[in-house]
Amino acid sequence: MSKRVVTLAHYYTAPEIQQMADKVGDSLELSLYARDANADVIVFAGVRFMAETAKILNPQAEVILPDAGSTCSLVTQTDVKRLKAWRDKHADHVHVSYINSSAEHKALSDWIVTSRNVDDIIAHLYAQGQKVIFSPDRNMGAYLNYQYGYDMPLWSAVCEVHDKFNETALNEGMAAVAGPRYLIAHPESPLPVLKRADYVGSTSGMLNWVKQFDREPDATLFVATEDGILYNMGLARPDLKIVQAPIYAGCQCNQCPYMKLNNVERVQRAQAGEGTRIDYLSHEQMDAARLPIERMLAFSEAQMRQAKPAPEVMPA
Ligand code: 13P
Ligand code: SF4
């Protein structure tokens, strides 16, 4: 009997990879798809921490990463031994970790969050009177501390793609365009960029913001994130002028080198059963990492159930 193969792709993969996928989404959506997939094999066209999360949530399935090199700078910049010492130093704090982390890192966490639910989960913890430490993304943590007046001690790793956005290049690039201008940004970007953004959110959040854009039809929308999602934005709103936010003079290639290791040939090979199997995590490691992930999924699914559909006609 042939195996049931499900292919998942993140928004940052190239359009031709997204077209090969059964589902495309942000980190939260892809985690839910992976958990619920009725599949023998999950091909994860994303990066390793996403494939590991899929395996942890659906251990019966074989999970294949098309290219072994698809890591993430937030993972490689985090030494887990040092992280453990840092967490132990803050033993009276709740340790909230971004999903862009290794399985070992997740196992040292109380909660996992994605860029989609991080605001709500941390607000929930503060409302309970908890003290919180946040790892590994320093930019995201700095934004949360600034935006909500928190005092979370932060781990110091960055996304090497988003960390390249800077205020000067942005000011110059936006000033060079006539007419109304808007900036939307992923929270992995540096704080000065986020402070001037009209919207800050996850890849899906930014995509929805663009879908619902109903202001000046001649506006230019600057997007501070990896360029893969511009494909989805262009498909959703071909009528709008959507451009990458500038980084600095010179190379404007704000592409994630790890996401872009997913090419057609490698994904096809993974669908045929070749590639990097996520089969190296012990049951103990997976059990320990699953707890904080499931805590997050339960929180977000409860929120999704409560979400009321938008009224068709806005009240006067
Ligand atoms: P999202 O969860 O917003 O899709 O982000 C994933 C990611 O790696 C951003 O760099
Ligand atoms: Fe990691 Fe940045 Fe690539 Fe996202 S864009 S996978 S955070 S390196």
TrEMBL record:
<protein>
    <recommendedName>
        <fullName>Quinolinate synthase</fullName>
        <ecNumber>2.5.1.72</ecNumber>
    </recommendedName>
</protein>
<dbReference type="GO" id="GO:0016740">
    <property type="term" value="F:transferase activity"/>
</dbReference>
<dbReference type="InterPro" id="IPR036094">
    <property type="entry name" value="NadA_sf"/>
</dbReference>
<keyword id="KW-0662">Pyridine nucleotide biosynthesis</keyword>
<keyword id="KW-0808">Transferase</keyword>
<keyword id="KW-0004">4Fe-4S</keyword>
<keyword id="KW-0479">Metal-binding</keyword>
<comment type="pathway">
    <text>Cofactor biosynthesis; NAD(+) biosynthesis; quinolinate from iminoaspartate: step 1/1.</text>
</comment>
<keyword id="KW-0411">Iron-sulfur</keyword>
<dbReference type="Pfam" id="PF02445">
    <property type="entry name" value="NadA"/>
</dbReference>
<keyword id="KW-0408">Iron</keyword>
<dbReference type="InterPro" id="IPR003473">
    <property type="entry name" value="NadA"/>
</dbReference>
